[in-house]
Amino acid sequence: MLSNTPRSTVKKAAHKAQDNVETLYQVIDHSLVAHIAINQESGPVVIPMLAWRVDDKVYIHGANNSRLMRNLAQGEQTCLTFTLFDGWVLARSAFHHSAHYRSAVVFGSFERVEDRGEKDRLLNHFIEQIAPGRCEDIRLSSDKELDATMLLEIPLTEASVKISGGEVNDDNADLDIPAWAGFIPYKTVVGPLKPSATLAQGISEPNYSDAYGNRWFDNIDTQIS
Fold first, then answer.
1. How far apart are alpha carbons 40 and 35 in whole angstroms?
2. pLDDT digits (tens, 9 = 90+) for 19-50
3. Which residue spans adopt a coiled-coil conformation according to this UniProt entry (predicted)?
4. Biggest distance spanned by C-alpha atoms of the chain
């Protein structure tokens, strides 16, 4: 079950809150982009970053001279947001138009991963997450490259999840309005692969579909339920 702290308690539309840890993991794993907040002298800044989960921690990486990474490495409090947009909700009134979405907010502070071997393992884990088996085919990071990269981790000990996926919420008085009501679903389609212009002849196309399940283009259900 997810934590229930003053920061992580969902107050607006609380009926959309989820307390299942696996739901949190799914939102993070499918998003892979975190919007991360930092405070600077000039004011707050929110920056999107690639992010991935290993067990109960989230990781981000960047150059050692990155403004964001240097700020977060100091252990200051921050929050990460992940959002998956699933479609529009069209109501019979302008006021009740809305959206279907899955979102997660993670609170806490980052710590640096200092050990070079552990850093290499975790960075490779991200590659394997987006393209299973790829680390067997590519040149892995050199010591110089690892030393130039900062890896930060944040535990998933304080987080909230919110899912909006319900029916059209029209007022009873509006149900007789002769306007179409329903949904415009959005679906994320992954693939097909597009080869680089520099790809040498004779290299066979890999299959990474296992990482994406029904989001892989061959598996997309064209029937709108």
1. 16
2. 889 999 999 999 999 999 988 778 888 999 99
3. none
4. 68
Q: What's phi and psi for 83, nearest 5 deg?
A: -140, 135
Q: How far apart are CA 112 and CA 73, in angstroms?
A: 6
- The angle at the Cα of 122, spanning 148 to 53, to the nearest 5 degrees, equals 120
Q: Is the peptide bond before 192 cis (omega within 30 degrees of 0)?
A: yes
DSSP assigned state of 2: -
Please enumerate, as own/partner, the contacts of 131-136 that have beta carbons within 8 Å and a separation of 24 or more. Answer: 131/206, 131/208, 131/211, 132/208, 132/210, 132/211, 133/206, 133/208, 134/206, 134/208
CA 88 – CA 99 distance, rounded (Å): 4
Which amino acid is it at 160? Answer: S
How far apart are the C-alpha atoms of 106 and 51, rounded to whole Å? Answer: 12
Contacts within 8 Å (CB) and 24+ apart, 93-97: 93/170, 93/171, 93/174, 93/177, 96/168, 96/169, 96/170, 96/171, 96/174
Q: In which residue are the tokens 């806490």 written?
A: 108
Q: How far is CA 152 from CA 15, 27, 74, 209, 214, in A?
A: 33, 20, 11, 28, 31
> 96: which DSSP letter?
G
pTM of the model: 0.90
Q: What is the pLDDT of residue 225?
A: 40
